[in-house]
Amino acid sequence: MQGKISQLWTLMNRSQLAKGQFIFLFFFSIVEVAVGLAVPLLTMKLIDQISSSGFSFTSLLPVIAVLVVQAILSAVTFYMMRRVGEGAVMNLRTEVWEHMLHLRCP
């Protein structure tokens, strides 16, 4: 198992990942998950408020706002993860292609 992990680290270092982007993306995805976890809590509060004092449009606004923020964060996170991943794959493919071009043909 230890050999597989060291091979993974070697591969990650070779792919020339943008470490700053990767760290930013990690924390950005944590924020996205936290906002996603806030939706059920706000929905619970909305249901409690509706059952105790009746429906009010203003009580629905925080839930709608959090859902919109979650959708935007989810889209940005997906785009950035895909961009970082495709960049790593592109760097690895370029390295393999350059290696193949320098091989001798029999």
Task: Give the SSE layout.
Blueprint: H1 2-14, H2 19-53, H3 57-101
Helix pairs in contact: 2-3
Q: What series of H and E elements makes up the topology?
A: HHH
Q: What is the CA-based Rg, rounded? A: 23 Å
For the terminal residues, how far apart are their CA atoms?
Answer: 37 Å
Annotation, overall tally of beta strands? 0
Oligomer: single chain
**What can be said about the biggest beta sheet?**
none
Helix content: over 70%
Structural class: mainly alpha
Low-confidence stretches: none
Number of domains: 1
Integer average pLDDT: 85
Described by the principal axes of the CA atoms, the overall outline is rod-shaped
How many individual helices? 3
Indicate the proportion of strand residues. Answer: under 5%
Main location: membrane
Keywords: Membrane, Transmembrane, Transmembrane helix
GO molecular function: ABC-type transporter activity; ATP binding
Protein name: ABC-type multidrug transport system fused ATPase/permease subunit
Notes on the protein architecture:
There is one protein chain. The chain is mainly α and 106 residues long. It has one domain (2-101). The chain is built from three helices and no strands. It has helices at 2-14, 19-53, 57-101. α2 runs antiparallel to α3. 0% of the residues are buried. The mean pLDDT is 85.
Summarize the structure.
With 106 residues, this protein is mainly alpha-helical. 88% of the residues lie in helices and 0% in strands.
